[in-house]
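Morning run. Coffee first, then this:
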Amino acid sequence: MQYRNDDERAAWELAEFMIQQARLMMREAEKALESWKLGKEMNRQRCARRGINTTDAEIRWAASASAKNAITNNSFHVSLATMYYGAATANYARAEYLRNNRP
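And here it is:
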């Protein structure tokens, strides 16, 4: 892409950086969700071996520190990704504005 001025280039590059950060945060959120799913399934299997029904296994998993940490990490990283995507959008808009409204 050819930029018309340094301000436009800086805004565009900052937007690209923000997109990279947002994608990184989404990957972290996905890892946390996978951790939660894996832990839930392992807990279900462990409880089944001990004769604990599915409902009680779900309750035990939901109350565990591992489940709470995984959900907290997922929520945290999704929030960060949302923030980065919003910032990227604002910087893309700024770059577009600078392209169209500066000599």
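The helical segments are 6-49, 54-63, 65-101. Good start to the day.
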